[in-house]
Design goal:
The structure is a homotrimer. By secondary structure, chain A is α+β, with helices and mostly antiparallel strands. The first copy, chain A, contains three helices and six strands. In chain A, 27% of the residues lie in helices and 42% in strands. Chain A has a six-stranded mixed β-sheet. The first copy, chain A, is globular and about 45 Å long. At the A-B interface, strand 3, strand 4 and strand 5 of A face helix 1, strand 3, strand 4 and strand 5 of B.
């Protein structure tokens, strides 16, 4: 019961965290994204198809917070791509406490993409597999795996999903 | 107020139940679906168009849990169709207590479908009309009606929405 | 902490309010829409593109509740358009208390549109920027700004988003 009530208390905070990260991306406040992660926090984007088969290929694979920051810097300064923005819908956030005090979190996502010169279209749907920890009194991502449903490789995946 | 606070307490549990069922389907754990229902639990999929006019035609009409299990068995063993999976988004879950101790629940859904050989597309949007009961200390569906928005009959409706 | 716990308590009520308004529209109970607003409540629909640049053009701009009611009456009695309905998905509702006792609320939305003679398609995605106040013990909208992601002007925007 202690675990259950702890989970209830933390559920809303975890939901707020996931929505806050989505909002930072939607608002184009990408420089804020690394701060959602621990220093050793990882961020990976891969297809469900590959993940289920244990295939290693990932579209994005950042193994610490510095790499996430580098990626943001690159898309601001180096990458060439048509300007666009995202809109996140996140549903069914499920929080499970782990023995080490962290939380395993699953949720479904849908991302709309709008090109500055073009319509809004469905860009990606899939699942977030997160490990959340309490660090200095705040919740942070130690791990985020974005499993997208489609098997095809996106030709334009610049902004983190 | 007693009813109001009971509803508040149950709201989160009902939300968890709806998301858990959606997740079982998205995970392709379809054999777990019947256990979300009472033995006399019903599951129906029909168009909003027909429902509003009192027309009886339904795409799926299971009148007890055994029929739901049969349908799952059929799609595993008998039906021939291109392999695909779903991704559910559920929004706006509204819980209303009924005099008999059950709960009337309405929510909006959106289901993306991804063919193993193909992209993710919007498959169906609509509304869930549920009646939830407490049975042996757990919440279960006594009735689920899936009202899809489109009038057209889906040519490929194999997996429960 | 007092502010924080007040916010926690109000969070669920605000969510219920936003979902209830979405449901009224999805149910085609449009005559109920004005009652969600205060007498001086405003309702505006504009592109994110224009809003960010401070450009004034809005697709819909109702500056009080009477104008919202007028607009509903017009679409019932005067406007000519193909019959259709909406389905709302609302995600990531974030509530921030303001010094004057009102609440600033942000959320993401996605609206599917189904023509009576046609399929369901993605109609609009974007963000709701709301100001909610307590009036006579109930929550009401003093302001709603619907910022849609796409730059293009919708040719058929009849029903409020």
């Amino acid at each position: 019961m202690a675990v259950a009530s702890l989970t209830k208390a933390i559920q809303r905070e975890v939901e707020d965290l996931l929505h806050a990260l989505a909002r930072a991306i939607d608002d184009d406040r990408l420089e804020a994204v690394p701060d959602f992660f621990t220093a050793d926090g990882t961020y990976k984007v891969m297809s469900r198809f590959n993940q289920r088969r244990g295939l290693p290929l990932a579209q994005i694979n950042c193994t610490n917070r510095g790499m996430i920051a580098d990626r943001i810097a690159a898309l601001r300064e180096a990458n060439v791509y048509p300007s666009h923005c995202y809109r996140h819908i996140v549903s069914g956030i499920m929080v499970t406490p782990a023995p080490d005090g962290s939380f395993t979190v699953r949720s479904n996502y849908l991302v709309m993409r709008t090109l500055d010169e073009g319509p809004s279209t469905l860009f990606s749907s899939g699942e977030y597999l997160d490990r959340i920890v309490v660090e200095d009194g705040a919740l942070r991502f130690r791990e985020r795996v974005v499993l997208f449903d489609s098997k095809s490789i996106e030709t334009l995946l610049v902004i983190p999903i």
